[in-house]
Structure formats: C-alpha cells, structure tokens
Amino acid sequence: MPRIANSIVRRAYAQDPLLPALLGVCRDLSLAANELRWLREHVDELPLAPAPRPLNTSTRRKKRIPNNDKHRLRKIKEAKLRDLVKQRSRGTPLQYLLGTEFFGELELKCGRGVLVPRQDTASTIAHLARLIRDPRNTLPNELRVLDLCTGTGCIPFLFGHELRETRHDISYRMLGVDVSTDALTLATKNLRRFQRKPSSSNLFNTSTTEAKDDGEREDGHNAKGAKVLANFMWADILNSPFEPQIENTPLPLMSAMNLARHPPFWDIVISNPPYISPDAYRKTTARSVRGFEPRLALVPPHPSTIPSSISTGVGSYTTSWPEKTIDTITQDAGDTFYVPILNIAAQVEAKVVLVEVADVEQAVRVARLGENFGFEGVEIWRDRPDDTDEAFPSSPSSPYPKQHSQDSSPGITKKRETKESKNDIPIVGAGNVRCVVFWRGNTGAAWLGKETQNDSILRSESHAMQPSMSRTDKFDGRYHADALLLASKWKGL
Ligand SMILES: C[S@@+](CC[C@H](N)C(=O)[O-])C[C@H]1O[C@@H](n2cnc3c(N)ncnc32)[C@H](O)[C@@H]1O
C-alpha cells in the first residue's frame, strides 16, 4: 500500500489534530474529514451526561448545568472521541463505531458479530421489489418473503419498505432466518425500532393483534391498508431433519418453521449467504473485513461437514432429479449454500428466488443449478440491474473478493455491451456481478416482467388466478400431507 505523503499528513493535522490517525484507514483526506465529522456528531449525541445532582424540588426554575459539569462533560466527550478515532485507525468498521448503517433509504442498527449490510446488496433488493410491486402485477393477498441468512434483517426490511411505496392493496409477510443469535438479536432490535417509529416507517408487526401504534388499525393493517407481519427465526439451513439433532443447536429450517407454525409456502426466497471460499478469504478479502466481521457470515463450512442430503440435495424433498449431478456443476468451496437454498426454495414453492454471489464464475455455476430445482428462468444481475448502456465503473465498495471475475479491477471504467450473456445466461445491468435471479411458472415470469410468447395470456391468467392464490388452511394442510408422504417415502416406509 503506498505511503501517504507528509504534506497531506501536515494538512490533515492543521485541519484537526485527530485527522492524521484516520488517514491510514481512509487513504483520502476528505473521506477522513467526513469520518471524523460523523464520529464527532455521534459522540455529541451520546447520552454522556455527568452524574445528575439531586434536584431541588422546592423550585421550578429551569435546571442549568453548572460550568464545572459542562467542562467535565466536554472532557468525557473528547476522551470518547479520541477512543473512537483510535479504534477506527486500527480498522474497526465505522458502522460498528457509529452503531448504524444505511441500507437503501433505511437506517439500520448494526454491531459487532453481525455483517455490516452493504449498499450493493440494497440496490439489487430494491430493484427486485420495484419489479414485483409493478401495479400491473397481480400479487397474492399476502405476499410472503423468506430471507435466508438474514443478518441485521436488512433485506426483508428494505423489500417491505419498497413494496409498500405502491402496493397498499396487499399484505406483506416476512420471515428472516439466521443461525447466529447475535444476528437475530440485532434484527429484532431493528424490528422494534421500526415499530416504534411514526407511521411512515411503522411497517413491521410481529402479529396481527399487536398493531396499535400510530398509523395502525387494530386489525393489523397499517394506515395505508396493508397488513405487515415480520418475524425472525433461529434455524440452520444446513441442518437436515433426517440427522440426529443436538440439544441447544438451531433446528433445520423446515422443522423450525413447522414448530413455530409459520406457513409452508413462500412466494419469494432471497438470500445473501456466506459465499467466500476459505482460500479467497485468506488471499483476497480485505484485512479490515477479516479482522472485524464474523467469519460465519462470509465463509461457508466445508461440504464434508454437512449432511450429504443437504450439500447435494439428493434424497431431499425434491422429487425430480436430472441426469446432471450437482458435483459436475458446482465445485467451488464457496458454493456450499446454494444447493440447500434452492432446495428450500423448491420446497416452499417460491416463484422468484434471488441469491447473492461473489463473481461471474460463481454466478454461472449457481445459475446452472436452477433447472435441478424446477426453475424455468434465470438471469444474472449486476449491482445496478436497471442501468443499461452507459460506461460503468466497477464498484470498489464491496468487501467480497472478485477473484477470477471479469470485473476484478475496482475503479476501472469499462464499456459494457447492452445485451450480455455468459454460457447463454443473460447478464443485466451495470457494475459488478452481484446476484442470480430465478423464476418459475407464469406467475414468477409475470412478476419479473418477463416477456413470453403468450404474455398477454399470462397477465389475464394471473388475474384469474387471484382467488386461488390467497392461501387457505386447506391449502397448507395439503402441503403437510405431501410432506409427510415424501418423508415416509424417503425413510422407506
Ligand atoms: C453474508 S451474511 C448476510 C447478512 C444479511 N443478509 C446482509 O445482506 O447483510 C450471511 C449470514 O448467514 C448467516 N448464516 C451462516 N450460516 C448459516 C446457516 N447454516 N443457517 C442460517 N444462517 C446462516 C450468518 O450468521 C450471517 O448473518
């Protein structure tokens, strides 16, 4: 890494004696100045008052902070700021120090032990929500979004936030799943924060009867008419129900969903799973990420450590299995989560699936898995899927390695073809390759605005389907019967 010129260090010191300490980590004077400003504002807002003096209850005079207390308070704040600058200079992510980060338009709590949400993820999630919320789309009465590997809960929160911009006619149910209790604690804090906020953000309720805050009606519908249900659940998506369960460890997803009486069918499955191979983690992941963000969130376990029915999908609920085996498609140590995720998506009968990936090679491997799970359409999205033709700079902001990727040089501006594909898989948008999107059936295709030969028929079919798309207990009951049948077949009963 090039050394910072002395003249810049001197300029920084002249601006503020605390600034030079931030130059190493920020590599840029204006960025360092911004970070210092944010840290200072953060300290100013901290409730760092000196110990309160006993109140004189006999007078109603306005309480003034005595001068020596003001001085003490200033000293406490200066010490706090110095401490934060020191931590930042050692590489602690700014978001852990400030305690929040923006994800799209939403400000979310974040903290140590949980991955900091990335704006690159936010842009693809917002794009998906904008496609789905298109007023021409007929959506089920309750749109269900399952987020696997939820972390702070950023994905389902943003999806719901974007959805309700235009779709007040439907309800929204979200379920975020994670194996980490730190992540679930943070996601739940974020949920409570949204629930406390005034009606504009007051979207997320854990049950239909709790919704009585400002802007909410008693029946759980928000002021704009859409009912929103939000939940987080502790579960391990790499755990198999057919293996002995260990006490005090998270249950397999489907078992946990049944136990918590969550519905078995979900319209959309989204996941930003751990996807960096151990090798890439060692060699290409930024030191600041490796040193401070949880490895659990970034690197999948070795496939040999998880049940083979999970790593290969063979012997799971998936009924049809083509000649092509998973082994011939996916061979990278970073790919462990994709088969289990697609398998879950197939089980919950998702019509649309979005999974984040590291680079174009991983995207192609993952895209090729889709047909094994009954997905009929697939597309690779870049960071800005709605950007079509201008030259684009590849984003330097992602913490993930872009090894082997055609986009591997951050900051370099390239000219991109408007219509692109790799191995016949369409790649859309601008920026780095970010995710793979699958869809199934007329409904999935219509929601993503995919033109098909019988597109006009699709739209009218989709409208005609609406009554049967609002699920009933009978519908869910049928699933349980199917699941039991399949489970008993699997066990050879
Ligand atoms: C890359 S982070 C994504 C977090 C969040 N969705 C985001 O975009 O910022 C991956 C998450 O997967 C969780 N995770 C790791 N292994 C898991 C498993 N076996 N089952 C469920 N979640 C898991 C981690 O705890 C972590 O929160």
Automatic annotation (TrEMBL):
<feature type="region of interest" description="Disordered">
    <location>
        <begin position="384"/>
        <end position="424"/>
    </location>
</feature>
<dbReference type="InterPro" id="IPR050320">
    <property type="entry name" value="N5-glutamine_MTase"/>
</dbReference>
<feature type="compositionally biased region" description="Polar residues">
    <location>
        <begin position="197"/>
        <end position="209"/>
    </location>
</feature>
<feature type="region of interest" description="Disordered">
    <location>
        <begin position="49"/>
        <end position="69"/>
    </location>
</feature>
<feature type="compositionally biased region" description="Basic and acidic residues">
    <location>
        <begin position="210"/>
        <end position="221"/>
    </location>
</feature>
<dbReference type="GO" id="GO:0008168">
    <property type="term" value="F:methyltransferase activity"/>
</dbReference>
<feature type="region of interest" description="Disordered">
    <location>
        <begin position="197"/>
        <end position="221"/>
    </location>
</feature>
<dbReference type="GO" id="GO:0003676">
    <property type="term" value="F:nucleic acid binding"/>
</dbReference>
<dbReference type="GO" id="GO:0005739">
    <property type="term" value="C:mitochondrion"/>
</dbReference>
<dbReference type="GO" id="GO:0032259">
    <property type="term" value="P:methylation"/>
</dbReference>
<dbReference type="InterPro" id="IPR029063">
    <property type="entry name" value="SAM-dependent_MTases_sf"/>
</dbReference>
<protein>
    <recommendedName>
        <fullName>S-adenosyl-L-methionine-dependent methyltransferase</fullName>
    </recommendedName>
</protein>
<feature type="compositionally biased region" description="Basic and acidic residues">
    <location>
        <begin position="414"/>
        <end position="423"/>
    </location>
</feature>
<dbReference type="InterPro" id="IPR002052">
    <property type="entry name" value="DNA_methylase_N6_adenine_CS"/>
</dbReference>
